[in-house]
Write a structure and sequence with these properties.
heterodimer, A: about 160 residues, mainly alpha, Potassium Channel Kv1.1, Chain A, three-stranded mixed sheet, 3 strands, elongated, B: about 400 residues, mainly beta, Monooxygenase, 5 helices, about 15% helix, globular
C-alpha cells in the first residue's frame, strides 16, 4: 500500500517450536508484550523486511489458541475493558480446554507476556481447584508433602477455623 | 441408572443434588492425574493470588514452599490486587449495623445480595469479637472497632483471618491544659491506609471536658485535637488541633478516599453542616473545607451525609418534604452538584445510611426496608427479605490476608 509508512511494519511472521509459520498482523501481535517488543525494536532499526519471530517454547497447537485470543482482544482494543461481550467470550474460550491444554496455555501466556490471558488462565485454574482437598492439590500439582506430621498438625491448628 | 429427582421431596432433592456435585468433585480429583509440566514458582504465585483467604489458609499445609508464598508480604499485596479487588465471592456482601435498644446496643448483620443486587438472599449475624462496637472500614479487609461502653476500647479486626488487635490507650496532648481539663469520652474516628509509608492508621478526633463544670460529659469549647495510631509503630501520636470546636456526629460522618479522611462538622448542635474536616494520611495535613454553597435559608436541608462518589468525596444533601437528594462532589477543591436523586415516587421517607461500593447508596425506608440506589443507572432496588430495626451504619464486606498482629 502506497499510503503506509515505509518504516512501519504491518505484519510479522511467528514461528512455533515445531517449525510452523503464522502470519500475524501487527495489531494482533501487539497483544503480546514479547512480540510487541520485537516489532518495536525492528521498527527503531528502520527495517521494512517482514520479520520472523521464533518462539522456541510454544507448540503450534497452543500458539493457535494464543493468537485466537489476541485476535479477539485486538478487535476490542479500543473499547473499554469491561466489555460484557468480551468477558463472555473469554469465559467460553477457556471452558473448552482440558487441563493439559490449560497448563500449556498458561505457560505460553506467561512466556509471550500476554498479561490479560495469563490472569484469565490463573483465575480459571484457581476457580477449578478451590473446592479440592489438600491431598488432591498435592496430587494435581505433583507436590510432595515436606512437612512432618507434627508441623502439619500445628499449621492446621493455627488456622483451625478455616478447616471447618 | 439415573436418579429421578422429581420423585423426591424438595429437601431430599437438595441433598441429592449436593451429593452428585460432591461426587463430581471427587472424580475430578482422580481424573486429572496432575499438570504434566509443573508450573514455575512465579506461576504458582499467580494462580494462588486468585484464591479466597479461606482456601489459602487451608492450602498452607500443602508444602513448605506454598506456606512461604502465602505468608510473603509481596504475595499478600498481589492477592489484594487480584482476588480481593476483582472476582471476589463476597462481591454481593455488606455488613449492616443496627441499634436494637434505647441504650444504643448494636447488632451486626451480614447481608448477601443476588447477582443483580435486588434481593437479600441470605443474612447472618456477624459476631464481632467485641460486642457493641461501632465499626468503620474496611480498608484492605481490616475494620476499626470502637467500643463505646465502659472502657472505650479500640481494636483493629481482620474477620477473614480471625485476628483482633487491641489498641493501647489514647495518649494526652503534650503540654495541654490544666489538669481539670480532660479528653471527652466521645470519639470521632476514621481508618485508612497511608500509601506513602505503607502503613494503616486510625485517626481520632477528640474534644475536651472540664471536670470543674457540672456534668463532666459536657464538652468545653476548646479546639478539637487529632490523634493518629500507626499499625506499624503500634503507637499513638498527637497531630495538632483544628482551629476551633465543632460538633461532629460520630459514626455518621466519616469517609476515607484518596489518602484522606473526611468528617462533617457544625458550629451548633444538630445544625447544618458548616465545615468538612479532612486529614491527609500521607502529608498529615489538616484542612477545614467549606461545604457546598447551597442556600439553607431558602431551602433548608434535612439531612447531610458524606459518601464516596465517583472516586471522590461526595456530600448527599436530603430534602425530605420534597423527597429528593442532591449529590455534591468535591473535585480539585470545588463542589459540583452532579445529580439529583429523585425519591418522590414512594410515600416514604428515605434515610441515607451510607455508600456501599461502585456508586451504590443504601437508604432505609421508613418501614425499615432497605433500598439501594445506583448512581450510574439511577435505579432503585428495594432489598426485599430484610426488615430490621434502626439501621445505623453500613460497611462493605472485604477479605484480605493483611495481618493486624505483629
Amino acid at each position: 500500500m502506497a499510503s503506509s509508512s515505509s518504516s512501519s511494519l504491518s505484519r510479522v511472521v511467528v514461528k512455533s517450536s515445531d517449525n510452523n509459520l503464522f502470519v500475524v498482523n501487527k495489531k494482533v501481535a501487539s497483544q503480546s508484550q514479547l512480540l510487541k517488543q520485537c516489532i518495536d525494536n525492528m521498527e527503531e532499526k528502520g527495517t521494512n523486511d517482514v520479520i520472523l519471530i521464533p518462539l522456541s517454547n510454544v507448540t503450534s497447537n497452543i500458539l493457535t489458541l494464543v493468537l485466537e485470543y489476541c485476535e479477539k482482544h485486538a478487535d476490542f482494543a479500543d473499547d473499554d475493558n469491561n466489555n460484557q461481550e468480551l468477558k463472555q467470550w473469554d469465559h467460553e474460550f477457556l471452558k473448552k480446554f482440558d487441563y493439559a491444554t490449560l497448563n500449556s496455555l498458561t505457560m505460553a501466556a506467561d512466556y509471550m507476556v500476554t498479561k490479560s490471558l495469563l490472569n484469565l488462565c490463573c483465575q480459571f485454574i484457581a476457580d477449578s481447584i478451590k473446592d479440592l482437598t489438600v491431598q488432591q492439590i498435592r496430587q494435581i500439582f505433583d507436590i510432595k508433602n515436606d512437612f512432618t506430621p507434627q508441623e502439619e498438625a500445628d499449621i492446621k491448628n493455627e488456622n483451625a477455623w478455616a478447616f471447618r | 441408572m439415573s436418579l429421578c429427582l422429581s420423585a423426591c421431596d424438595p429437601k431430599m432433592e437438595t441433598i441429592l443434588k449436593k451429593r452428585i456435585l460432591r461426587e463430581r468433585k471427587r472424580s475430578f480429583g482422580t481424573l486429572v492425574e496432575k499438570f504434566e509440566d509443573s508450573f514455575s514458582e512465579d506461576l504458582v504465585i499467580e494462580i494462588l493470588s486468585w484464591l479466597s483467604v479461606k482456601n489459602l489458609l487451608q492450602f498452607k499445609v500443602v508444602c513448605k514452599s506454598w506456606y512461604d508464598i502465602i505468608e510473603n508480604p509481596h504475595f499478600i499485596s498481589k492477592h489484594l490486587n487480584n482476588y480481593c479487588s476483582r472476582n471476589n465471592e463476597f462481591d454481593g456482601c455488606f455488613i449492616i449495623q443496627n441499634t436494637i435498644t434505647q441504650a444504643g446496643e448494636i447488632d451486626n448483620y451480614q447481608l448477601l445480595l443476588n447477582d443483580d443486587a435486588s434481593r437479600v438472599i441470605a443474612d447472618q449475624i456477624v459476631d464481632t469479637p467485641v460486642s457493641n462496637t461501632y465499626m468503620c472500614g474496611p480498608c484492605d479487609g481490616i475494620y476499626y472497632l470502637w467500643c463505646f461502653y465502659e472502657e472505650h476500647e479500640r481494636f483493629l479486626w481482620n474477620p477473614a483471618l480471625n485476628e483482633l488487635k487491641r489498641l493501647p490507650p489514647l495518649i494526652m496532648k503534650p503540654n495541654h491544659f490544666p489538669s481539670h481539663i480532660t479528653l471527652h469520652m466521645g470519639d470521632y474516628y476514621g481508618f485508612g491506609y497511608d500509601s506513602f509509608t505503607k502503613d494503616y492508621k486510625v485517626i481520632i478526633i477528640k474534644g475536651y471536658c472540664d471536670s470543674h463544670e457540672e456534668g463532666n460529659d459536657l464538652t468545653t469549647p476548646y479546639p478539637l485535637s487529632i490523634f493518629i495510631y500507626s499499625l506499624r509503630s503500634g503507637c499513638w501520636s498527637y497531630m495538632g488541633d483544628l482551629s476551633k470546636y465543632y460538633y461532629l456526629e460520630h459514626n455518621k460522618c466519616y469517609v476515607f478516599i484518596n489518602d484522606s479522611v473526611y468528617w462533617l462538622g457544625s458550629n451548633e448542635y444538630f445544625q447544618y453542616c458548616d465545615v468538612i474536616i479532612s486529614f491527609n494520611l500521607t502529608t498529615n495535613n489538616i484542612e477545614e473545607l467549606q461545604p457546598p454553597n447551597y442556600d439553607e435559608k431558602v431551602e433548608p436541608p434535612d439531612n447531610e451525609r458524606l459518601v464516596v462518589c465517583y472516586e471522590s468525596v461526595g456530600l448527599l444533601v436530603g430534602y425530605h418534604k420534597k423527597k429528593y437528594y442532591k449529590m455534591w462532589v468535591l473535585n480539585k477543591g470545588i463542589w459540583n452538584n452532579i445529580c439529583m436523586i429523585d425519591l418522590s415516587f414512594g410515600a416514604h421517607y428515605y434515610r441515607p445510611i451510607g455508600h456501599w461500593k461502585d456508586n451504590k447508596l443504601i437508604f432505609q425506608v421508613s418501614g425499615w426496608e432497605l433500598c439501594l440506589y445506583d448512581l450510574d443507572t439511577q435505579e432503585v432496588a428495594y432489598l426485599r427479605g430484610y426488615f430490621r430495626v434502626l439501621c445505623e451504619n453500613i460497611c462493605a464486606y472485604k477479605e484480605s490476608l493483611v495481618s493486624v498482629l505483629d
